[in-house]
Specification:
Number of strands: 13
InterPro entries: CRAL-TRIO_dom (IPR001251), CRAL-TRIO_dom_sf (IPR036865), CRAL/TRIO_N_dom (IPR011074), CRAL/TRIO_N_dom_sf (IPR036273), PI/PC_transfer (IPR051026)
Helix content: 25-40%
Radius of gyration: 20 Å
Strand content: 5-15%
CATH class: Alpha Beta
Protein name: CRAL-TRIO domain-containing protein
CATH superfamily: CRAL-TRIO lipid binding domain
Distance between the termini: 7 Å
Number of helices: 14
CATH architecture: 3-Layer(aba) Sandwich
Pfam family, one: CRAL_TRIO
């Protein structure tokens, strides 16, 4: 079965799923009510403070509601477990103080941001699994036994996995907020970016290598699904070997059904055409038929448009290595990028640059409306709107 035929089967269900549906600016009345009820529930139990500023933004809360199919009770359970886990493992301290070399060692093993976005403005990641062999993982896990940060944990989550979650923090605190404030995308003024698009290259991976990595990848995937829900959008699996149907039988049990429904397994003849459907060729790595000169392990090849849009500080012209996050400036009109982490035992706090806030939203009875149109005009939005020719797959299989 091809990716197209899977998509057709999904579309036949008639359900509205996928970005921007269920996100700010695109909420149905019942979804608005669920968000309002969720916030009330969280506040009553001490897991949310309405502020201003609120302890958690609406786009984060919506991730949990979408993951739990808008069931407020189930969303609360997952949110509570995540907040308790974050507190027990000092996640904010981990991210702010992690050693830059330790961070880079993790980044070189797991999905890497290419510095580019898909046609909807969502950050594009690449994961080449063949680099994650048992010898490399063993060396990484041994190095991870030494605490690379000032975080004090409860010891319940393996140290070898905690360093991985610094990368998820980078996704949610740096890449997604950056893409949110770029005006050259559909829904720029109303809808924050809380997702990522992923190319997963499984070529050159033997069945034995998959088997050796099984426990490590299962543990990492299950923790990510539990504590970073709804951060994955489309996942394109490329280079699947003949035995991948066996491997897929393991993998799909590690994820919730919503995530599984977003996975496309592409045959060789489908790769270029399918990727171009969702990603401009200039942002597709050359090895998959695109124009981007991006090799595994590279630092992000920052989109020239991003470089032009950021107002750089401290002599910088691009983002430095290591963990970074965005925070509002004092007047609230811009967001500032700050580079953190530790180098040689000394904690870093470097102002990188600022962006004008484009996606400013205000809440009206749980709804989100544009607060001033600073981004695309209606005409520009129409010119840049993406025509969705594919839908999320329900039961992906290897294409013949």
């Amino acid at each position: 079965m091809t990716a197209d035929s899977i998509a057709d089967a999904s579309a036949a269900s008639g359900t509205e799923v996928g970005y921007p549906n269920g996100h700010l600016g695109h909420l149905k009345p019942e979804e608005q009510e669920a968000l309002k009820s969720f916030k009330t529930n969280l506040a009553e139990k001490g897991y949310y403070k309405p502020g201003p500023p609120a302890s958690h933004d609406d786009q984060t809360l919506l991730r949990y509601l979408r993951a739990r199919r808008w069931n407020v009770v189930d969303a609360f359970k997952q949110f509570k477990e995540t907040e308790d886990w974050r507190k027990a493992n000092d996640l904010n301290v981990l991210y702010d103080t992690i050693d830059l070399e330790a961070y880079e060692a993790s980044r070189r093993l797991y999905p890497q941001w290419t510095g580019r976005r898909d046609r909807r403005g969502i950050p594009l990641y690449l994961f080449e699994i063949r680099h994650l062999d048992s010898k490399t993982v063993s060396a990484y896990e041994k190095a991870a036994e030494t605490n690379p940060s000032k975080a004090v944990t409860d010891g319940q989550t393996s140290p070898k996995l905690l360093r991985l979650f610094a990368l998820y923090e980078n996704l949610t605190r740096f890449a997604q907020p950056l893409c949110t404030e770029l005006p050259d995308r559909p829904h720029a003024t109303t809808t924050p970016i809380t997702l990522s698009t992923n190319i997963v290259d499984v070529s050159g991976v033997s069945l034995r290598q998959f088997w050796n990595l099984k426990s490590h990848m299962q543990a990492a995937s299950q923790l990510a699904t539990a504590h970073y829900p709804e951060t994955l959008d489309r996942i394109f699996i490329i280079g699947a070997p003949y035995f991948f149907s066996t491997v897929w039988g393991w993998i799909k049990r590690w994820f919730d059904p919503i995530t599984v429904s977003k996975i496309f397994i592409l045959g060789p003849s489908e790769v270029k055409a399918t990727l171009e459907e969702f990603i401009d060729p200039k942002n597709i790595p050359k090895q998959y038929g695109g124009e981007l000169d991006f090799t595994w392990g590279d630092q992000p090849k920052t989109d020239p448009y991003i470089k032009e849009t950021v107002k750089w500080e401290n002599g910088l012209k691009d983002f430095p290595e290591g963990p970074k996050y965005w925070r509002p400036t004092a007047d609230g009109t811009r967001v500032e990028c700050v580079a953190v982490g530790s180098e040689g035992g000394k904690q870093r706090m470097l102002s990188v640059g600022t962006l004008e806030r484009v996606c400013n939203v205000k809440k009206v009875d749980g709804d989100a409306l544009a607060e001033g149109v600073k981004g695309l005009s209606v005409g520009d939005a129409e010119k840049n709107e993406v025509v969705e020719t594919g839908k999320e797959a329900t039961v992906p299989v290897v294409s013949a």
